[in-house]
Structures are given as C-alpha cells and as structure tokens.
Amino acid sequence: MLALRALAFVAFGLAVGSFLTVVIHRVPRGQSIVAPRSACPSCGSQIEARDNVPVVSYVLLWGRCRRCGTRIPAEYPVVEALIGGLFLAAALAFDDVVVAATVALFFAVVVAVAAIDLRHRIIPNRIVYPSLVAFLVAIASFSALGRPLSLSRAGLGLLAYGGGLLFVAIASRSGMGMGDVKLAALVGLVLGALGWAYVGVAAALAILAGGLAAVIALVRGAGRRDLMPFGPSITAGALISALLAPQVASWYTHALR
User: Fold this and answer.
1) Is 101 within the bounds of a domain?
2) What is the pLDDT of residue 23?
3) Is 99 among the domain residues?
4) Which residue, 38, 73, 93, sits at the end of a domain?
C-alpha cells in the first residue's frame, strides 16, 4: 500500500508541477492560468499533449521545441521533478493520507510563491489569499472529521508566525514586505495544524536561510540597500520543517541539556 501511495503521489505531483510552471510564468504577468493552452514563447505554436508529459517530454525533445527548435528553459522539468519529489516526501513522512495530501499541496503553493518572488520580487496575492482560505477550510473540515490536524493550533500558528513578521515589517519599515507577512501567515496556518514544533522550526530555519542568503549576496557584490527576496527563505524553512521538525526539535532539545 505504501508503494502504491508513493507512486500515486509522485504521478500527481509531476502533473501539479507541470501546472505550476504555467502559474509561475503567467501570474506575475497578470495572465489567466486557465487559457489559452501552453505554447512555445518563440514560435507561438501550441504544445501538443504528447509534448506536455512532465519531465519525460523534455528529455525526449532534448530540451527543444518540436516546431522551431528553440531551447526550452530547464526551469520547467526542474519544477516538475521538484514537486514530484516533494509529493513523494510528503507521502512517506505522514502516515495519514489526508495529512500527506494537505502537506503536499502546501508544498506546491509555497514553491510557486518562492519561484515568483525569486524572479520578480513579489509574492502574489492571487496565490496567497485563495490558498489561505482553501487551507483554512480544509483544516477545519479535516479536524472536524477527526484527522490529526488542529484548527486551534493552525489559527495560533498563523497569528504567531504572520504576526511576528508583521511586527518586524512595521518596525523595520522598508526591511520586510507585506507579501512576506502573508506568506508567513500561510505557513503558520498549515504547519500550526501539525504542531507547534513545526512553526518554531520553520521560523528559525527561515531566519538562518535569510541570513545566509544575505551574506552570499553581499559577497557577490550586492549593496546593503539592495532588496533581497525573503519568500524563498520562508519556503525553505517551511519545506524542511514539514518533513523534519520533530527530529530537529528533538536534536535541539538534547543539545541544550
């Protein structure tokens, strides 16, 4: 059963990853993610179904458009493979299939947000607001049905993580964007439903990742006033925490003894 679940999660994850490449490309441009069908940005020809199989089509086409031969950015198969891998990780990390599916879809959302923030320096409300509502409804529903997701902890996680970054944003004025606050609220909501340790580890890792990214950027010549996206750091902390928070919290507790 575990093997079947893993296979189903990987297959669905690859499909979701393929859809996310459309989301990542179109949302920052204000375009519809539903229509028109995907097309080659160079020649404009619609991508046929046989050329739209996640990862596989890219390999078979040698990374080029079938019609014009223009190279297809490696970002597409990378996102597809990453989401497929994260869905597999969620399937293996959580015994309850509903929790695993919830976390897997959460992974898809935060990866899309991080990719957009990394490239465009924005965290789109078109993704974050609907996700907040959808995950809140899902957590409330699953909690009422007896699944191991806590609605009360989810609300407190939202307030703790989102509220914490809101305080930072107000105190630092231009140092933290409100998009980061909204993303942190989403992370706090979903991870809070799993447990307090998940929120704490996610926040700590986000700070560490953000600091490391800032140091690397400064070493590479960035100025102190250059804006650096914090969304990818929040996402990195959330991904690691969702999969490893109990182990990280246990290690930290023992290290302090």
Assistant:
1) no
2) 96
3) no
4) 93
Q: How many CA atoms lie within 13 A of 193 on its CB side?
A: 27
Domain-located, residue 231: yes
- Cα 174 from Cα 225, distance rounded (Å): 10
In this prediction, residue 199 carries a pLDDT of 96
Check: CB of residue 46 under 8 Å from CB of residue 39: yes
CB 79 within 8 A of CB 20: yes
DSSP-based three-state secondary structure for 181: helix
Contacts (Cβ under 8 Å, ≥6 apart) of 229: 117, 118, 121
Note down the domain range covering 248: 123-257
Give the confidence band of 256 by pLDDT, cuts at 50, 70, 90. Answer: low
pLDDT, residue 253, reads: 67
Element containing residue 41 per DSSP (H, E): none
* Residue whose entry in the numeric block shows the structure tokens 């990195």: 236
Residue 225 predicted with pLDDT over 60? no
What is the rounded average pLDDT for all residues in the chain?
A: 90
What is the maximal distance between C-alpha atoms in the chain? Answer: 64
Contact (CB, 8 A) for 132 and 185:
yes
d(CA 227, CA 176): 9
User: Among candidates 224, 226, 121, which has minimal Cα distance to 180?
Assistant: 121
The structure's pTM equals 0.91
pLDDT of 172 above 60: yes
Alpha-carbon torsion (57, 108, 240, 144), positive or negative: negative
CA distance linking residue 141 with residue 127, whole number of Å: 21
